[in-house]
Every structure is written in C-alpha cells, then in structure tokens.
Amino acid sequence: MKNLFKLVLVILLLVSCKDAQKSSDSKESQITEGLLNEVMGNNVDIDKKYALLMEELKTKTLLTDQELLEAYPKKLGNLKLDSNEARITGDKTVVGSFGDNTVRMEILDAGGENVMGAIIPLKMLELNKITSEYNNTIRYSKKERNGILTFGTDRDEDTKADYQSEIRFLYDNRFYVTLEGKNMDSNKLWGVLGVENLQRFKDFN
C-alpha cells in the first residue's frame, strides 16, 4: 500500500510537471513525458514486443566464432575490410572496420545468454523521446529502413566525436548491429552498409 501511495505521488508530480511545461518543446518536457509514459505503463505494445523477442532469443544457441567470422562481410560497397578478418570479443560480438576505419561495424549474436545485452538497449532506444541535444549538434532519429526499425545518431563535426553518424538495429530478429561512420550522416551510412551484405547472418539464424 505504501508503495502504491508513492507511485501515485510520482504520477501526480510528473503530470503537474508535464502540464506546467505543456507549451514548451524543451528537452526537460520530453524527458518528463517519457518518464510519465514509463510510470503509467503507456508502452504496452513496446513492452510486449520486446518480451516476445526476449523469449524467442533465449531459445537460440549462440553461433561459434568461426560462424560469426564467416558471416561477417568482407566488403561494404567500395569499402574493403581493413584487415584479413574481423575479431571476436568475449560476448560473441564480431567487430571490424572498413575503408581505413571510415566505417566500423559490430554485430552481437543476441541469442541465449546474450539476449539482455541487445534487448535492453534497443528497448530504451525505442522508448526514447529525445530528438536532439547540445543545441541540436547531436540529433537522434527512429526510421524504418528496408523494413527494419533503425535508431540513428548524427553529430556535428564540432562535437569532436570519432564518428559523426551511428545506426543501431536488430537484424533478422536476432543480431544487434551497431554501425558507425566518419564524415557522413546516418542516411548515407545506411547506404554504405547495404543490408544485403548481412545475408550470411540470416542464413545462420
């Protein structure tokens, strides 16, 4: 009962904050709205989507290191893999770079024990209602590309980031892909990727 009372107080506080900032498009207002949705459970569809994904992925057997390396593309468009082969990290993530580090791509096999490492960040990205920060020098987007829900980040040069663009998405309902690009926006980065280059991962799924 005490916890219920606290929850009601939090909801009332968030509602009053939201009302007070209704006419504002500020970052604080968007954060408040996001928190309100979380507390009031207005994300039923998203919760259900990721709960089902989690149950399905738990049944998957992780690919072997050899399979991950075999599936990883050797070329993205005109950009060749920078070394003879990509490398595997301890959590079954295969990592490589292309075109003298112009594009970097890591792919996590989100099956079995790795499921939380993909589902939690992807769910948070989908729930996020913030579209930009730091005076609009960093911008976030959600966009369906080739039937895949993608989460993009674009940074201005003066942010001094190693990569100006980034795209994250779940490929074939299993592989958590993080793609980063230099001197290009997220739309161009997606074009460089060529999602068909990930076909071998689908073959192993």
What does this structure look like?
- The protein is of the alpha+beta class.
- The protein is 40% helix and 25% strand.
- It has helices spanning 2-20, 27-40, 44-58, 65-71, 115-127, 186-193, 199-204; strands at residues 75-76, 79-80, 87-88, 93-98, 103-109, 132-133, 138-145, 148-155, 165-171, 175-181.
- β7 (138-145) and β8 form a beta hairpin.
- The chain is globular.
- Residues 1-24 have low confidence and may be disordered.
Mind sketching the topology for me?
Layout: H1 2-20, H2 27-40, H3 44-58, H4 65-71, E1 75-76, E2 79-80, E3 87-88, E4 93-98, E5 103-109, H5 115-127, E6 132-133, E7 138-145, E8 148-155, E9 165-171, E10 175-181, H6 186-193, H7 199-204
Antiparallel strand pairs: 1-2, 3-4, 4-5, 5-10, 6-7, 7-8, 8-9, 9-10
Helix pairs in contact: 1-2, 3-5
Descriptors:
disordered N terminus; eight-stranded antiparallel sheet; 205 residues; two-stranded antiparallel sheet; alpha+beta; 2 domains
Q: How widely separated are the two ends?
A: 46 Å
- Overall average residue pLDDT: 85
How many individual domains?
2
Number of helical regions:
7
Percent of sequence in beta strands: 15-25%
- Radius of gyration from the CA trace? 19 Å
Q: Spans with pLDDT under 50 lasting ≥5 residues?
A: 1-24
**Silhouette:** globular
Number-wise, the strands total 10
Order of helices and strands: HHHHEEEEEHEEEEEHH
SS-derived structural category: alpha+beta
